[in-house]
Amino acid sequence: MVKKQDKDNEKRQGNQGKAGCPAKASKIGYSTPYSYCSERLSPFGGLFGLVKFMELIQFKEIFEGLYNPPSRTPERGHYSMVYGFIMLLFIGFNRVWHFLYIQSDSMLCSIFHVTKLPFVTTYWRYVNSLGINQGKSLLMVMSALRERVWHLCEIGYETIHIDMDTTVETIYGNQQGGRKGHNTKNRGKKGFRPVLCFIEETREYFAGKLRSGETMGGEEVGEVIRGFKKYLPGCVKKVILRGDGEFISWESVEAAMEGGYLFIFGNKGCNPPFDPFKWYKVRGNDRVEYNECVYQPIGWNQACRFVTMRIPKDEPLEGKDVQRKLFEDDEYIYRIFVTNMMGKAHNVIEKYDKRADSENLIGEAKREGLAAIVSNKFGSNYAYFQIVMLSYNIWRSFKMIAGHSQLVQGQKAEERKPESKCVAREVIDNTIRIARLKLLFVAAKITGHSNTHEVKYSQHDSRVEGLFRFMGYLDERLKQVRPWLDGKRWFSSHLLVLGIKQIAFSP
Description:
alpha+beta
């Protein structure tokens, strides 16, 4: 049977760029002539959207109010220097000397109001002046940034999941803090072992720090957990912590209880006595069984709930002589967790398994510059670590705002009222590398006349139309009262730190 084809399909396959300006095919070969041009061109046209975004969230206000500057003050100011690092990392470069490649870029020079960016050594000297205090203050900058972006995207999560994990950064020199530890890819090599915490709902970096290469101890984990309170958005009422066996200890459990957090930590070193008659299956034909008990390990001040699942090991192939296991436990693989959450054991373990995405986020953060060791000084590396994660969060926020603009524009087209929440998962699916192709690497030309400047984009690029819609959305939001000030939604805790009063709202 031959199906009838739609003969009118040519109309639906048109270019997404500006209509009425068809591109003319060019012919380029090995003998094509080449020459200079006087136009100021840039491959990073999407930075114009970033400038609008930074103005929308009033990033300079956040930075100057929360950043703890070093004693050495550069000629161009602390904001300009850190902003330069953010631009470098936002574009995709992660080494300080990579400023050499963008030093004369027209878009960047126009953003900083210079004809040429400072020499690389200027940025090197600023990195060497940074320390641990500057890194800690950048965490407060990120928390304020998070609150403002959540307001703009109409996000108000009352419950969030914080996934905690560590990774290894191998070093090949004599950097301060390098230690030999758990390093499966480079055994025997020194390295750092940073800890990172991500918010599952938005995939943002929440907190963390650069550490020496040793495995985390219980007191250090407890110290990290106790610091979470000041970074939480004002709308959050319940926090669920998830971590693997490296984070289980009485100190971490006690810190989570003191903070009023729910937690699920993987077990390491504890052997709770589970009742052999309480094993159950979720479905009758399942191989996996679940159990739970209340147990107080040695050294713990109180008993806690432990949940477990056991998976039968694969049976040996027929025809091979295999010695039978002496104990029943040898026939199973056990996964044990400590928690203070209620509910069936299998439901608790299912919630823990969603933590696996943190490995992907750490991998992406490493590709964005987390693995770059810029100095021999541990304090400088500590601060640069937080600058990298600040740039990572700005990319996350930039994509969330872009996704929210699509959501709002789609609702306006359908003549519907905006929803109360933005579905964050739908706007952050793409990795940062893919987002750069869509939102950043768009060619632009900068023109000037009568002391005014204009950024122009090619009408033949299919991405430009979407970029224009996004920047139009940003221009519209720039004219409005900032949502974290109008008092219509939840209170932003960073306003108290900055000394900003929220406008009273009466419905």
